[in-house]
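We now fix the convention by which a protein and its fold are recorded. These numbers are not coordinates but entries in a learned vocabulary of local backbone shapes. A record is reproduced here so that you can trace the correspondence yourselves:
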Amino acid sequence: MLKRWLILIALCFSSLSPSIPAQTAPEWEQISPEGTICGRGAPYAFYVNRGRDQRKLHIHFAGGGACWNAFNCHKSANLFRDEVIPYEAVLNEPELREGVFDLERPENPLRDYATVFISYCTGDVHVGNRAVNYTPSLTIQHKGYVNAKAALEWVYANFPEADKVLVSGCSAGSYGAIMHANSIFSRYPRAMHRLIGDSGVGVIAPQWDGLETWGFYENLAKELPELADVRRDPFIINQLYAANSKRYPEAIFTQFTTAADSIQVFFYGLQGGKDWQSGMYARLEALERLPNFRAFISGGTAHCILPYDRFYTYQANGVPFRDWVADLMEGRDVPTLKCKNCQIAELTH
């Protein structure tokens, strides 16, 4: 089950190129930047679809698990994707193109967007820059930050201007999205800025040391210097949201989660944590004090919504998530929404 989840989470894509007939979308391109590597040494690559409207840019950070010690980084644990999706799979398995990455679906609010799919294969939620020797025979290249920066430099060179910029990420990618948001938004100062963190609330057990292991804090100081001393206090993902919210008051930052997300619960348990749900509500309620943050909490246990067809069927308090995202990207105000009966998924009819 977990293996299938890791594969599907990693298969998130979308769109990019002008003057394309409305009924068709361009195909995906593979880009292999120099100086990049996957966790166990495999080559890194990311994917680009030039879409129908290059003035609309969607940058998506893929998910695919994580690891931070000799036990859960071992190959047999199968807790993170250690290779990128093969290009042949991207081209030849259209049934895996669901959710916002179904570029032929008329009701997809992102179907015209130029889209960059930042692959993930380093077990460090796109924030690491260390080669860690867990045992004499086990070294993991936690180079997710390096890979992401290489992909983004290509984006900036090839898409120098945009009117709308959406940064999103699923699961592990949701942390990459907020980590790299400042870099991305600052390159497009005149664009409308939006962020969707999908299924990555960031409930962290107090004793967990994964961020330190990956070399996150050194990279954080580069991205947001005002957080350079954050290790003096327990770090929570909210600090990244708060710092970016202050830098970009005109932007809207959002998070989606289900009320009992089974994968977030699982990884929180690996950290030694208990009662993920209480932590989730506390984190999101704190962020709701920010003037430009919105949350969408749906019922059930599903993990990630953007790369799946439940993007079109899940709702909260009677509002479909698809419609909420469409309003978000059209510049309309969207409210924070929470499920009423959170035990089960609330579906559209």
